[in-house]
Amino acid sequence: MAVAGGKVAWVAADWGTTQLRLWLMAPDGRVLDERRAGCGMATMQPDGYEPALLGLLADVLPAEGALTVVCCGMAGSRQGWAEAPYAAVPCPPPSSDRATRVATADKRLRVCLLPGIRQDDPPDVMRGEETQIAGVLAAFPGFDGIVCLPGTHTKWAHVSAGEVVSFRTFMTGELFALLRDGSVLRHAVQGHGWDDAAFDAAVSDALSRPAAIAAELFAIRAAALLRDLRPEAARARLSGLLIGIELAAARPYWLGQEVRIVGEAGIAGAYRQALAAQGVAAPILPADEMTRAGLLAAYANLGETAE
Amino acid sequence: MAVAGGKVAWVAADWGTTQLRLWLMAPDGRVLDERRAGCGMATMQPDGYEPALLGLLADVLPAEGALTVVCCGMAGSRQGWAEAPYAAVPCPPPSSDRATRVATADKRLRVCLLPGIRQDDPPDVMRGEETQIAGVLAAFPGFDGIVCLPGTHTKWAHVSAGEVVSFRTFMTGELFALLRDGSVLRHAVQGHGWDDAAFDAAVSDALSRPAAIAAELFAIRAAALLRDLRPEAARARLSGLLIGIELAAARPYWLGQEVRIVGEAGIAGAYRQALAAQGVAAPILPADEMTRAGLLAAYANLGETAE
After folding, report:
1. Which residues in chain A are closer than 8 Å to B248, comparing Cβ atoms?
2. A114: exposed, middle or buried (C-beta count within 10 Å: 0-12, 13-18, 19+)?
3. ipTM (interface pTM)
4. Model-level pTM?
5. Which of A78, A150, A187, B274 might form a disulfide with A263, Cβ 3.0–4.6 angstroms?
């Protein structure tokens, strides 16, 4: 039940649509080891979750008693391991007292799945991001403002008095990937470079004329044909247009508000840059740190409520 | 050189990205036969075009002389059979006097590729639709107004005094297909039914708040999860949102204008319905008839200029 760095007290798990990330945690909150696998919810049957976990944790399972795994993300969805029903806004990010305990065949595991959050009007859901918001609240007790969580489905959440008051999801990241990889734009945007000025101009264009998005997208292809638009400028423009229309619609979330961005460096940096151009200084909090902080808060609460 | 219905005088060809359509034409303009193949520009090398054409026309090639094939579409692009360089707006739809003659190894073919049209600011291109616009002008001499050509890349063209004055392309059809088939919405929209009321509401929502598109798209999934939104309503809403933001941006093209829609029944009907809700009565002209009419005009012009 120990690894090189010390005794494994519990396991923090982020089990999403495409991958599983595990952090082996010391009693004092240090990360002893990190493990990843590609066994996301999208490719799993319910009876596949326990073997996947046992395989990754074989060397740290206890000789007696059970190893606690606190898990957020899509594993708790109806199509996942077991359903952890949504909490409804306004609510605090759901902790372990609202979690679903999974019955495992191997009694050396004690798994608890954290619920997501739902909003009925406008209809919206999150699973995983609520735990990052719990992490923000653990790191900054009393935080009152907006948490922006960029990703495949970017979330903007209004947090006040320890609760998620409302939120809205934008398909920006998924649109970017679909257009980059599968559309007529794929030749124009291929490669890996980046053009900051093209990104800034696109954010501004989309904010001032958001409806034109479908025409502005095709114009990227036309500009590649007619003006030899460089791929790094085309790719940055594609990103800027999509983030720009998102900012246009999310304006009530960021205008005059305290904003924190929770995300990975690349995409979080793009949002910070776009917000900075609107006069909003939004610090970035690393996504995996916030996930672990949220899972730790749930683990601590589990100890209080169940033992 | 004849088929069941009579002598083949020439061949009208629409050679696009994904397929080739041929119409065997009688001297009096009747269609004697129609032939299709899946050999679109996207899957062809330059040396594959002539064999493909010979294969489809083997039974009607003349014993002496050459069979004229007038061709519009992507076969005339830089990545196609041979480049037919764009004409620049403002210009009449390019006819055979601006076409590219292809040198064929088999002298029983005489192939002419019609050019597309370019616009430098905002950058935009069309290839194939200009021939449909030529067909509209042939069918309605002196037409002055807007031609809307719905499809993968929907075009809105301002036509006046026999010329295309300006145009704008929207990636609406491609966005619809990407989201329907490849996104998180694919489960919510699967099947084939349709809900007119959901379409109308979505057009209206998108017109009044176009920037919210990326959030409204995700809300389709959330409504399927939380409200059991039916697939036919989800699919109609997806279409309505995308057509709605297009109409919001294309407003200068349709507000107070004479509009003709050139398209296939399903998609053209959706645009007609969306425009009707804005008070614009736009008749539909069948796409393939307009293509043939445009190719016939080019063929007639070819006779005048080259023989």
Report:
1. 211
2. buried
3. 0.92
4. 0.93
5. A150
